[in-house]
Specification:
The protein is of the alpha+beta class. The protein is built from four helices and five strands, in the order βααββαβαβ.
């Protein structure tokens, strides 16, 4: 059986979310984007993928392995856009997901 098609989701960041990204994302994760030019996080999502898991790494929150918390409006938008019943209140950001193309920044 073929795997479900990816949906692209773009979430525009607020000022405090941009500060979170600046605190936790390394230069390698952001690529050519300067922190001051950061505008959005882009997610390639397939039905069945888990966007948010509240399992913190054993070392705690570290650079390139952290959670981006969403605003109430973004929570509603993500659920509606992806057709999810449950609320996604945070998105796991990891270097592995960025390298795989599942998460990106613009």
């Amino acid at each position: 059986m073929a795997r479900a098609k990816k949906k692209k989701l773009k979430i525009y960041l607020t000022s405090w979310q941009k500060r979170m990204v600046a605190d936790f994302a390394t230069k390698a994760t952001l690529g050519n984007i300067r922190r001051r030019d950061l505008a959005a996080v882009e997610i390639a999502w397939r039905p069945g993928d888990c966007l948010a898991s509240y399992k913190l790494p054993a070392l705690g929150v570290v650079k390139d392995d952290w959670m981006l918390y969403l605003t109430d409006e973004q929570v509603k938008m993500v659920s509606a856009e992806l057709g999810l019943r449950q609320k996604v209140t945070a998105i796991n950001i990891s270097a592995r997901d960025v390298e795989a193309g599942a998460i990106g920044f613009s």
